[in-house]
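wait is this the right file?? whatever heres the structure
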Protein backbone atom coordinates (compact mmCIF):
# COMPACT_ATOMS: atom_id res chain seq x y z
CA UNK A 1 0.00 0.00 0.00
CA UNK A 2 1.37 3.42 -0.86
CA UNK A 3 1.29 6.32 1.56
CA UNK A 4 -1.23 8.01 -0.67
CA UNK A 5 -3.74 5.11 -0.45
CA UNK A 6 -3.30 4.92 3.32
CA UNK A 7 -4.06 8.64 3.58
CA UNK A 8 -7.09 8.25 1.32
CA UNK A 9 -8.42 5.38 3.51
CA UNK A 10 -7.76 7.47 6.62
CA UNK A 11 -9.64 10.51 5.34
CA UNK A 12 -12.49 8.50 3.86
CA UNK A 13 -12.93 6.52 7.07
CA UNK A 14 -12.65 9.54 9.35
CA UNK A 15 -14.98 11.76 7.31
CA UNK A 16 -17.65 9.13 6.71
CA UNK A 17 -17.62 8.15 10.44
CA UNK A 18 -17.83 11.83 11.40
CA UNK A 19 -20.78 12.39 9.03
CA UNK A 20 -22.64 9.33 10.34
CA UNK A 21 -21.91 10.39 13.93
CA UNK A 22 -23.15 13.94 13.34
CA UNK A 23 -26.25 12.72 11.57
CA UNK A 24 -27.07 10.30 14.40
CA UNK A 25 -26.57 13.10 16.94
CA UNK A 26 -28.92 15.36 14.97
CA UNK A 27 -31.46 12.57 14.61
CA UNK A 28 -31.25 11.79 18.34
CA UNK A 29 -32.11 15.38 19.24
CA UNK A 30 -34.96 15.39 16.72
CA UNK A 31 -36.48 12.23 18.19
CA UNK A 32 -35.74 12.99 21.83
CA UNK A 33 -38.94 14.91 22.77
CA UNK A 34 -41.09 12.08 21.39
CA UNK A 35 -39.35 9.22 23.20
CA UNK A 36 -38.37 11.06 26.37
CA UNK A 37 -41.72 12.88 26.79
CA UNK A 38 -39.96 16.18 27.48
CA UNK A 39 -43.35 17.92 27.64
CA UNK A 40 -44.06 15.96 30.87
CA UNK A 41 -40.88 17.26 32.54
CA UNK A 42 -42.36 19.58 35.16
CA UNK A 43 -40.89 21.10 38.34
CA UNK A 44 -42.01 18.21 40.51
CA UNK A 45 -40.18 15.72 38.29
CA UNK A 46 -37.01 17.82 38.47
CA UNK A 47 -37.36 18.09 42.27
CA UNK A 48 -37.73 14.28 42.42
CA UNK A 49 -34.55 13.80 40.43
CA UNK A 50 -32.69 16.03 42.91
CA UNK A 51 -33.95 13.83 45.74
CA UNK A 52 -32.62 10.81 43.85
CA UNK A 53 -29.17 12.45 43.76
CA UNK A 54 -29.28 13.83 47.30
CA UNK A 55 -29.74 10.33 48.77
CA UNK A 56 -27.58 8.56 46.20
CA UNK A 57 -30.33 6.11 45.34
CA UNK A 58 -28.34 4.87 42.36
CA UNK A 59 -25.61 3.51 44.61
CA UNK A 60 -27.89 0.48 44.74
CA UNK A 61 -30.62 1.05 42.11
CA UNK A 62 -30.39 1.38 38.32
CA UNK A 63 -32.24 3.78 36.02
CA UNK A 64 -31.83 3.22 32.27
CA UNK A 65 -28.84 0.97 32.93
CA UNK A 66 -27.03 3.54 35.06
CA UNK A 67 -26.45 2.74 38.74
CA UNK A 68 -25.81 -0.19 41.06
CA UNK A 69 -27.11 -3.69 40.45
CA UNK A 70 -27.62 -4.56 44.12
CA UNK A 71 -31.27 -3.48 44.32
CA UNK A 72 -34.24 -3.69 41.90
CA UNK A 73 -34.10 -1.73 38.61
CA UNK A 74 -36.08 1.50 39.01
CA UNK A 75 -36.67 2.33 35.32
CA UNK A 76 -40.21 0.92 35.29
CA UNK A 77 -40.74 0.86 39.07
CA UNK A 78 -43.74 3.16 38.76
CA UNK A 79 -45.63 0.52 36.75
CA UNK A 80 -44.50 -2.22 39.10
CA UNK A 81 -45.41 -0.50 42.37
CA UNK A 82 -47.60 2.55 41.76
CA UNK A 83 -47.34 5.89 43.54
CA UNK A 84 -48.40 5.02 47.10
CA UNK A 85 -46.21 1.89 47.32
CA UNK A 86 -43.17 3.90 46.15
CA UNK A 87 -43.84 6.54 48.81
CA UNK A 88 -44.25 4.02 51.62
CA UNK A 89 -41.18 1.93 50.65
CA UNK A 90 -38.95 4.99 50.27
CA UNK A 91 -40.04 6.45 53.61
CA UNK A 92 -40.09 3.20 55.60
CA UNK A 93 -37.87 0.59 53.93
CA UNK A 94 -37.14 -1.07 57.28
CA UNK A 95 -40.86 -1.88 57.61
CA UNK A 96 -41.45 -2.79 53.97
CA UNK A 97 -38.47 -5.17 53.97
CA UNK A 98 -38.34 -6.31 57.56
CA UNK A 99 -38.53 -9.99 56.58
CA UNK A 100 -36.28 -9.99 53.51
CA UNK A 101 -32.59 -10.76 53.25
CA UNK A 102 -31.54 -7.84 51.04
CA UNK A 103 -31.90 -4.56 52.92
CA UNK A 104 -32.61 -1.00 51.92
CA UNK A 105 -31.42 1.50 54.54
CA UNK A 106 -33.69 4.12 56.11
CA UNK A 107 -32.44 7.29 54.42
CA UNK A 108 -34.63 9.84 56.19
CA UNK A 109 -36.58 10.76 53.03
CA UNK A 110 -39.38 13.21 53.92
CA UNK A 111 -42.98 12.94 52.70
CA UNK A 112 -42.53 15.82 50.22
CA UNK A 113 -39.34 14.28 48.88
CA UNK A 114 -41.04 10.89 48.50
CA UNK A 115 -43.99 12.44 46.62
CA UNK A 116 -41.60 14.21 44.23
CA UNK A 117 -39.62 10.98 43.89
CA UNK A 118 -42.80 9.17 42.81
CA UNK A 119 -43.42 11.88 40.17
CA UNK A 120 -39.84 11.49 38.94
CA UNK A 121 -40.15 7.69 38.73
CA UNK A 122 -43.47 8.08 36.91
CA UNK A 123 -41.79 10.25 34.28
CA UNK A 124 -38.81 7.86 34.02
CA UNK A 125 -41.21 4.96 33.51
CA UNK A 126 -42.94 6.81 30.65
CA UNK A 127 -39.70 7.05 28.62
CA UNK A 128 -40.05 4.94 25.50
CA UNK A 129 -36.87 2.88 25.80
CA UNK A 130 -37.84 -0.21 23.78
CA UNK A 131 -39.02 -2.42 26.66
CA UNK A 132 -36.07 -2.14 29.03
CA UNK A 133 -35.76 -3.83 31.47
CA UNK A 134 -37.50 -6.88 29.97
CA UNK A 135 -38.48 -8.43 33.31
CA UNK A 136 -40.81 -5.47 33.98
CA UNK A 137 -42.62 -5.58 30.63
CA UNK A 138 -45.48 -7.60 32.12
CA UNK A 139 -46.10 -4.83 34.69
CA UNK A 140 -46.05 -2.17 31.96
CA UNK A 141 -48.60 -4.15 29.89
CA UNK A 142 -50.86 -4.70 32.90
CA UNK A 143 -50.72 -0.99 33.78
CA UNK A 144 -51.55 0.07 30.22
CA UNK A 145 -54.46 -2.36 30.11
CA UNK A 146 -55.87 -0.94 33.36
CA UNK A 147 -55.57 2.60 32.00
CA UNK A 148 -57.29 1.72 28.72
CA UNK A 149 -60.18 0.03 30.53
CA UNK A 150 -60.56 2.86 33.00
CA UNK A 151 -61.09 5.31 30.15
CA UNK A 152 -63.52 3.13 28.20
CA UNK A 153 -67.11 3.55 29.40
CA UNK A 154 -68.82 0.19 29.81
CA UNK A 155 -72.10 -0.65 28.10
CA UNK A 156 -74.09 0.27 31.21
CA UNK A 157 -72.65 3.82 31.13
CA UNK A 158 -73.41 4.05 27.42
CA UNK A 159 -77.00 2.86 27.89
CA UNK A 160 -77.71 5.17 30.82
CA UNK A 161 -75.99 8.08 29.08
CA UNK A 162 -78.26 7.70 26.06
CA UNK A 163 -81.53 6.59 27.69
CA UNK A 164 -81.24 7.68 31.33
CA UNK A 165 -83.24 10.86 30.66
CA UNK A 166 -86.44 8.75 30.69
CA UNK A 167 -85.48 5.23 31.83
CA UNK A 168 -83.96 4.08 35.10
CA UNK A 169 -81.72 1.20 36.08
CA UNK A 170 -82.02 0.76 39.81
CA UNK A 171 -80.73 4.04 41.25
CA UNK A 172 -79.45 5.36 37.93
CA UNK A 173 -81.35 7.52 35.44
CA UNK A 174 -84.93 8.85 35.64
CA UNK A 175 -87.97 6.78 36.53
CA UNK A 176 -90.23 8.43 33.92
CA UNK A 177 -90.78 5.61 31.42
CA UNK A 178 -89.91 2.42 33.19
CA UNK A 179 -86.86 0.66 34.66
CA UNK A 180 -84.61 -1.31 32.29
CA UNK A 181 -84.61 -4.23 34.74
CA UNK A 182 -88.41 -4.59 34.31
CA UNK A 183 -88.46 -3.65 30.63
CA UNK A 184 -85.82 -6.23 29.76
CA UNK A 185 -88.00 -8.90 31.39
CA UNK A 186 -91.13 -7.80 29.59
CA UNK A 187 -89.89 -7.45 26.03
CA UNK A 188 -89.41 -10.35 23.65
CA UNK A 189 -87.55 -8.48 20.88
CA UNK A 190 -84.41 -10.01 19.42
CA UNK A 191 -81.27 -7.89 18.98
CA UNK A 192 -82.12 -6.57 15.50
CA UNK A 193 -85.67 -5.68 16.45
CA UNK A 194 -84.44 -3.87 19.53
CA UNK A 195 -81.99 -1.80 17.43
CA UNK A 196 -84.85 -0.98 15.05
CA UNK A 197 -87.10 -0.13 18.01
CA UNK A 198 -84.53 2.31 19.42
CA UNK A 199 -84.34 4.16 16.09
CA UNK A 200 -88.05 4.05 15.32
CA UNK A 201 -90.20 2.77 18.24
CA UNK A 202 -93.51 3.17 16.39
CA UNK A 203 -92.38 0.97 13.53
CA UNK A 204 -92.04 -1.92 15.98
CA UNK A 205 -94.86 -1.16 18.36
CA UNK A 206 -97.61 1.09 17.10
CA UNK A 207 -98.78 3.85 19.38
CA UNK A 208 -95.92 3.59 21.90
CA UNK A 209 -95.05 6.94 23.46
CA UNK A 210 -91.27 6.68 23.12
CA UNK A 211 -89.81 9.18 20.63
CA UNK A 212 -87.27 7.93 18.01
CA UNK A 213 -83.71 7.99 19.40
CA UNK A 214 -81.10 9.70 17.29
CA UNK A 215 -78.04 7.53 18.05
CA UNK A 216 -75.62 5.62 15.82
CA UNK A 217 -76.28 2.00 14.89
CA UNK A 218 -73.17 0.90 16.81
CA UNK A 219 -74.34 2.60 20.00
CA UNK A 220 -77.85 1.19 19.53
CA UNK A 221 -76.36 -2.30 19.14
CA UNK A 222 -74.27 -1.93 22.33
CA UNK A 223 -77.39 -0.80 24.22
CA UNK A 224 -79.50 -3.62 22.74
CA UNK A 225 -76.88 -6.17 23.88
CA UNK A 226 -76.87 -4.58 27.31
CA UNK A 227 -80.67 -4.82 27.68
CA UNK A 228 -80.64 -8.43 26.51
CA UNK A 229 -77.85 -9.23 28.98
CA UNK A 230 -80.06 -7.92 31.81
CA UNK A 231 -82.73 -10.35 30.69
CA UNK A 232 -80.22 -13.20 30.62
CA UNK A 233 -78.95 -12.31 34.11
CA UNK A 234 -82.48 -12.48 35.50
CA UNK A 235 -83.12 -15.83 33.83
CA UNK A 236 -79.99 -17.24 35.41
CA UNK A 237 -81.02 -15.96 38.82
CA UNK A 238 -84.50 -17.52 38.65
C1 LIG B 1 -27.87 0.66 50.18
C2 LIG B 1 -28.64 0.33 49.01
C3 LIG B 1 -29.90 1.11 48.71
C4 LIG B 1 -30.06 2.48 48.59
C5 LIG B 1 -29.04 3.57 48.77
C6 LIG B 1 -31.45 2.67 48.21
N1 LIG B 1 -32.10 1.48 48.12
FE1 LIG B 1 -34.00 1.21 47.54
N2 LIG B 1 -33.83 -0.78 47.81
C7 LIG B 1 -32.66 -1.44 48.17
C8 LIG B 1 -32.93 -2.86 48.24
C9 LIG B 1 -31.93 -3.91 48.59
C10 LIG B 1 -34.28 -3.04 47.90
C11 LIG B 1 -35.05 -4.35 47.78
C12 LIG B 1 -35.24 -5.02 49.13
C13 LIG B 1 -35.83 -6.41 48.95
O1 LIG B 1 -36.30 -6.76 47.87
O2 LIG B 1 -35.78 -7.12 49.94
C14 LIG B 1 -34.82 -1.72 47.63
C15 LIG B 1 -36.13 -1.48 47.22
C16 LIG B 1 -36.61 -0.25 46.82
C17 LIG B 1 -37.92 -0.01 46.27
C18 LIG B 1 -38.98 -1.06 46.00
C19 LIG B 1 -38.61 -1.78 44.75
C20 LIG B 1 -39.53 -2.94 44.42
O3 LIG B 1 -39.61 -3.26 43.25
O4 LIG B 1 -40.14 -3.52 45.32
C21 LIG B 1 -38.01 1.32 45.99
C22 LIG B 1 -39.19 2.06 45.38
C23 LIG B 1 -36.75 1.91 46.36
N3 LIG B 1 -35.93 0.94 46.86
C24 LIG B 1 -36.46 3.24 46.21
C25 LIG B 1 -35.27 3.81 46.63
C26 LIG B 1 -35.02 5.24 46.58
C27 LIG B 1 -35.98 6.28 46.02
C28 LIG B 1 -33.77 5.43 47.09
C29 LIG B 1 -33.10 6.76 47.32
C30 LIG B 1 -33.83 7.69 48.18
C31 LIG B 1 -33.25 4.14 47.45
N4 LIG B 1 -34.19 3.19 47.16
C32 LIG B 1 -32.00 3.93 47.98
C33 LIG B 1 -31.45 -0.84 48.42
C34 LIG B 1 -31.20 0.50 48.41
C1 LIG C 1 -87.92 10.84 25.87
C2 LIG C 1 -88.05 9.70 26.75
C3 LIG C 1 -87.43 8.38 26.33
C4 LIG C 1 -86.13 8.14 26.00
C5 LIG C 1 -84.97 9.13 25.91
C6 LIG C 1 -86.02 6.72 25.79
N1 LIG C 1 -87.23 6.11 25.99
FE1 LIG C 1 -87.60 4.12 25.88
N2 LIG C 1 -89.54 4.47 26.35
C7 LIG C 1 -90.10 5.71 26.56
C8 LIG C 1 -91.52 5.55 26.76
C9 LIG C 1 -92.51 6.71 27.03
C10 LIG C 1 -91.79 4.17 26.68
C11 LIG C 1 -93.11 3.49 26.83
C12 LIG C 1 -93.35 3.14 28.25
C13 LIG C 1 -94.62 2.32 28.40
O1 LIG C 1 -95.36 2.17 27.47
O2 LIG C 1 -94.73 1.81 29.53
C14 LIG C 1 -90.50 3.52 26.42
C15 LIG C 1 -90.37 2.15 26.30
C16 LIG C 1 -89.18 1.52 26.01
C17 LIG C 1 -89.02 0.10 25.84
C18 LIG C 1 -90.11 -0.96 25.99
C19 LIG C 1 -90.68 -1.29 24.66
C20 LIG C 1 -91.91 -2.20 24.78
O3 LIG C 1 -92.25 -2.73 23.75
O4 LIG C 1 -92.42 -2.31 25.87
C21 LIG C 1 -87.72 -0.13 25.53
C22 LIG C 1 -87.06 -1.46 25.24
C23 LIG C 1 -87.06 1.16 25.54
N3 LIG C 1 -87.97 2.15 25.83
C24 LIG C 1 -85.73 1.32 25.26
C25 LIG C 1 -85.11 2.56 25.23
C26 LIG C 1 -83.72 2.73 24.93
C27 LIG C 1 -82.76 1.60 24.68
C28 LIG C 1 -83.47 4.06 24.99
C29 LIG C 1 -82.16 4.76 24.72
C30 LIG C 1 -81.52 4.51 23.47
C31 LIG C 1 -84.71 4.71 25.31
N4 LIG C 1 -85.70 3.79 25.45
C32 LIG C 1 -84.84 6.08 25.45
C33 LIG C 1 -89.44 6.91 26.58
C34 LIG C 1 -88.12 7.10 26.30
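ok assuming it is, sequence goes like this
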Amino acid sequence: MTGKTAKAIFWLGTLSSAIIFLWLTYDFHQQEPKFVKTDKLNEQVVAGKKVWHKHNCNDCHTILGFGGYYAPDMTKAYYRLGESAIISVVMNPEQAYKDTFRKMPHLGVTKDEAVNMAAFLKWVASIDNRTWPPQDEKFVKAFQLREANAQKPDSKDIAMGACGGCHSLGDLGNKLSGDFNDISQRISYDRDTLVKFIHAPQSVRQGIAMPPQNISSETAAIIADFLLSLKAEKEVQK
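The mean pLDDT is 92. so i think its the right one actually
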